[in-house]
Specification:
With 267 residues, the protein is mainly alpha-helical. The chain contains 10 helices and 2 strands, in the order ααααααααββαα.
Length: 267
């Protein structure tokens, strides 16, 4: 048994498993039709889109890795992490979470339209149509309003989301990745070598370790645990079980974080 850790051996095994997971997902999609669990069909399309984002982002990450890129891939790792936890959250919370996502999308469109008008963009005629919030938002005083507010906070703030799943330790990783996804001193320093007061320029940023490759496969497994049971025949079940075993856990479900306190039942 190999020693699981931030090392080349673990990264190699994780990478091989991740490639298989992406390939298997692609084969499911191109198999000629997907049969969806009817109870989750209304959630399926959003989950599917996020699942594809996780899978194709993983493939993009490995292409960058093979080409010798290091810190430049941090925004992709950040997106993989965020989309995976969002999948767990949506599958867990169900309909109320779907409403939160729809409301957030409508608010984004409204703000974008307001920005375009303020900066004198030429706007197509249809964009002048008033965008209304989706039906189903609980009004204040409704027993479900508190749940809507709670879920809104989780969806909009990643630190709140991971704390809800008792995984506050994930947030420092996300925050670090954010520091490499914006113009910061950290992105500049990645290309500098410091030796006391002497500073030299680097052409390529040093690799920090192998965690990005390893946890990308963990994320692919988490995302697969959400999606595969929603598809007729649970097509990834066997591969997910093998991936979990190779990563050192008893079953894939152990890689999927559970909500710390269950949400109250909605009306």
């Amino acid at each position: 048994m190999y020693e699981f850790g931030n090392n080349e051996q673990t990264a190699g095994r994780a990478r091989a498993l991740g490639v298989q997971l992406v390939k298997a997902a692609d084969e499911v999609i191109t198999s000629g039709g997907i049969v969806v669990d009817q109870d989750k069909e209304h959630l399926f399309y959003l989950l599917y889109g996020w699942w594809r984002m996780v899978n194709r982002s993983a493939a993009a990450l490995w292409l960058l890795d093979d080409a010798g890129y290091t810190v430049e891939s941090a925004p992709i790792v950040r997106n993989i992490l965020e989309h995976t936890y969002s999948m767990v959250w949506l599958h867990d919370a169900g309909d109320p979470a779907l409403t939160v996502v729809e409301v957030a999308a409508q608010e984004y469109r409204q703000k974008l339209l307001a920005n375009m008008r303020r900066t004198n963009w030429r706007i197509v005629r249809d964009a002048d149509i008033e965008i209304l919030p989706p039906v189903g938002v609980p009004a204040e005083g409704d027993p479900d309003h508190a749940i809507h507010v709670k879920l809104s906070g989780e969806f909009r703030m990643f630190d709140t989301l991971v704390v809800a799943y008792d995984r506050g330790d994930v947030y420092p990783v996300y925050r670090y990745l954010c520091s490499l996804s914006h113009a910061t001193a950290f992105t500049a320093n990645a290309y500098l070598e410091r030796d006391g007061e002497n500073i030299s320029a680097r052409g390529v940023a040093a690799r920090a370790g192998y965690a990005d490759v390893i946890w990308t496969t963990v994320s692919l497994t988490q995302a697969g645990v959400i999606m595969s049971p929603l598809i007729g025949g649970d097509p990834l079940k066997r591969l997910l079980n093998r991936a979990a075993a190779d990563l050192g856990v008893e079953a894939p479900s152990f890689l999927r974080d559970q909500r710390r306190a269950p949400l109250p039942a909605t009306a």
